[in-house]
């Protein structure tokens, strides 16, 4: 398992690209799939960085990556405010113009489109978001 520890600071997201590259190299993930993983994880981590902890509060976010049975699984773990992103974003009307579309939910919609599974648990005061994608290794 590979892991990345981040602070809840948007500047920390610059570490995501190199981490996904390392994960892709270690597990032999194709570049097009790696791009999708990076995009989905960027959205999920941006939500965690921006909303998990009250403004002005420092907190940590852990990103874990593991390959199991041909699936790459990423777990995003924080001890912030409980939030289940699997409960929203599935019914975004992307046919609406930007002006007509309500704010929010598009990132979660994107994650659901890029990943095969998205699961949320609240365990021991931790948010655990698991994103899974079936991958063809190279």
Explain the layout of strands and helices:
Elements lengths: L1 E6 L8 H12 L3 H21 L8 E9 L2 E8 L27 H9 L2 E7 L2 E9 L4
Antiparallel strand pairs: 1-2, 2-3, 3-5, 4-5
**Number of strand elements:** 5
- Secondary-structure-derived class: alpha+beta
N- to C-terminal separation?
19 Å
Low-confidence residue ranges: 96-104
Briefly note the CATH topology name.
Heat Shock Protein 90
Q: Radius of gyration over alpha carbons?
A: 15 Å
Quaternary status:
single chain
Question: Hey, roughly how much beta strand do the residues contain?
Answer: 25-35%
Tell me roughly what share of residues is in helical segments: 25-40%
- Strand line-up in the sheet with most strands: 1-2-3-5-4
* SSE string: EHHEEHEE
Estimate the mean pLDDT confidence: 87
User: In one word, what is the shape?
Assistant: globular
The CATH architecture can be given as 2-Layer Sandwich
Q: Please, how many domains? A: 1
Largest sheet: 5 strands, antiparallel
Count of individual helical segments: 3
> Please, what is the CATH homologous superfamily?
Histidine kinase-like ATPase, C-terminal domain
Give a summary of the structure in a few sentences.
By secondary structure, this protein is of the alpha+beta class. Helices cover 30% and strands 28% of the residues. Strand 4 and strand 5 form a beta hairpin.
What does this molecule look like?
- This protein has 138 residues and is α+β, with helices and mostly antiparallel strands.
- It has three helices and five strands, in the order βααββαββ.
- The protein has helices at residues 16-27, 31-51, 106-114; strands at 2-7, 60-68, 71-78, 117-123, 126-134.
- A five-stranded antiparallel sheet has the order 1-2-3-5-4.
- A hairpin with a 2-residue loop joins strand 2 and strand 3.
- Mean pLDDT is 87; it is low at 96-104.
